[in-house]
Amino acid sequence: MQYKSTLIKQLQGGSETKIKPSYKDGVSTHFSDESYGSTTWKREKNQAGLEPDNCFYFENEARIRGHLEFNLEEDPPPDLALEIDLTSKSLNRFPIYARLGVPEIWTYDTGELKIYQLQENNYLEVTNSSIFPMLSIQELPRIIEAFRLQGRRAMRQAVREWVRARF
After folding, report:
1. Distances (CA, A) of 87 to 83, 108, 109
2. Long-range Cβ contact pairs of 28-31 (< 8 A, separation 24 or more)
3. φ/ψ (deg, to 5) at 39
């Protein structure tokens, strides 16, 4: 797989977010993420490719930090793909995600957020995210709806505050 990012795509889709370090029970709750928006991901060897609504690196963020080109034969796939299923459903795309090796998918449809994890080449719906096991991810739609009319910036701030309050 090769993906070559243009500067415009990088500026529009890529954003690094750092949450202020804190500790709970001696465990650091600091993490970085890298968002690559609706980047097109392909893996030629597995004849697979798609473009999620958004995708993120968390666990592998340090391995891809600063990359403008990706090769899924060498680089890890995104840790999380987000699909907004308002106009079309993404379940038929799950086999492609599996061939790409994306470990977790979140789907949002009509106020409901579902989490799917890759297990033995299939996605199974689960209640907890492996990326954020300490968070009740199903609360996010309520927060998003409460701040949606105030704009993306207010919504993102509300989500960040919600995360910090749980640590």
Report:
1. 11, 11, 9
2. 29/167, 31/58, 31/61
3. -65, 140
Segment 85-108, tens digit of pLDDT = 887 788 889 999 999 999 999 999
Question: Which residues, at least 6 apart from 86, have a Cβ–Cβ distance to it below 8 Å?
Answer: 109, 110
pTM: 0.70
Q: What is the 3-state secondary structure (H, E, C) of the chain?
A: CCEECCHHHHHHHEEEEECCCCEECCEECCCEEEEECCCCEEEHHHCEEECCCEEEECCCHHHHCCCCEECCCCCCCCCEEEEECCCCCCHHHHHHHHHHCCCEEEEEECCEEEEEEEECCEEEEECCCCCCCCCCHHHHHHHHHHHHHHCHHHHHHHHHHHHHHCC
